[in-house]
TrEMBL record:
Keywords: Signal. It holds the Pfam family Glutaredoxin. This is Glutaredoxin domain-containing protein. The keyword tRNA-binding does not apply. InterPro entries: Glutaredoxin, Thioredoxin-like_sf.
């Protein structure tokens, strides 16, 4: 009997991790299946558990994460900003079926936080029409989740004059009712790529590789695979939710790119040669293997990094 109990215990010990791993893998496969079944106007929305600081105080807000961005209901934002310099009121016109935003007036309801368990929902692109108090259309894209319209927090901040930023050090969303121009906070060296010693005809050169992209971007993944295959060290940063950084990148590198003159595209790849105390940057948008083969050929021949005059 004792021998049987020992054998049974051993079986439980060895099979439990396997079962747990199987369940974990099943969960991942289930999520992949959900995403693959989405319509073109649908996205997966996940309950956001991010920390939030509003006017210097830690709070919790009702929000969903879609592609790393926080989405909230306009009414919740209006209630949160009640009695602040960025106050506004939200109403609905049944006849025109339009949401009306009136700046400078308080929302009637007080802000309340509703605790939600972590879950995923299907978010469908909404077609809700929004106007200001003068009847002028407001361009605001969002998603329909569980019977409510949710809008990107940073987009709301732009039209309603409050500040939204992200503290990468503490992983906290920052909201400010007084300063609409607050900036993201990064750890020191967050955008500093490691140095690669690249052999060239003139000897070894110090080159950094910094990629602005994200996981869901197929060309970003192809670029990283290409660099991995060459043994290149690099860092990749997702700046989709960082307006200040996108503006900086656009201003610095996109001026002369007539084919990309409306916004930052991904991947945006910055290669930097550091030599004699100077830095020379080169920017490449997108990924084509033949193009990168030629770039690395020119790097080896010392003809790629030509300082702009």
């Amino acid at each position: 009997m004792k021998k049987f109990a020992v054998v049974l215990l051993a079986l439980l010990i060895f099979t439990s991790p396997i079962t747990a791993l199987a369940n974990s893998n099943e969960g991942k496969e289930e999520n992949k299946a959900k995403v693959s079944k989405l319509e073109s106007d649908e996205r997966m929305a996940k309950t956001s558990g991010e920390k939030v600081r509003f006017d210097g105080k830690d709070i919790k807000i009702n929000s969903y994460l879609i592609n790393r961005s926080n989405y909230v209901r306009i009414r919740d934002a209006a209630a949160l900003l009640k009695d602040t310099p960025a106050k506004f009121m939200v109403s609905y016109d049944n006849e025109s079926q339009k949401v009306i935003i009136t700046k400078g007036q308080n929302q009637k309801e007080d802000f309340t936080y509703v605790e939600k368990r972590e879950e995923e929902k299907i978010a469908k692109t909404n077609k809700q029409k929004i106007v200001d108090s003068q009847g002028k259309d407001i361009e605001l894209n969002g998603y329909f989740i569980d019977g409510y319209n949710y809008f990107r927090l940073r987009d709301l901040a732009k039209i309603l004059d409050f500040g939204v930023a992200y503290d990468f050090k503490t992983q906290t969303v920052l909201l400010d009712s007084k300063d609409a121009k607050i900036e993201d906070i990064y750890e020191e060296g967050y955008f500093t790529a490691p140095i690669n010693k690249i052999k060239t005809k003139a000897g070894e050169e110090d080159i950094r590789f910094l990629i602005y992209g994200f996981e869901e971007c197929p060309y970003c993944q192809k670029l990283k695979a290409y660099l991995d295959n060459k043994g290149i060290k690099y860092i990749a940063r997702d700046i989709r939710d960082s307006e200040g950084k996108k503006d900086e990148i656009f201003e610095k590198y996109y001026k002369d790119m007539t084919e990309y003159n409306d916004r930052v595209y991904y991947p945006t790849h910055i290669m930097t040669l550091e030599k004699d105390g100077k830095s020379i940057d080169k920017c490449v948008v997108g990924f084509e293997e033949k193009q990168y083969d030629e770039i690395f050929k020119q790097i080896e021949e010392n003809t790629y990094f030509v300082e702009n005059k």
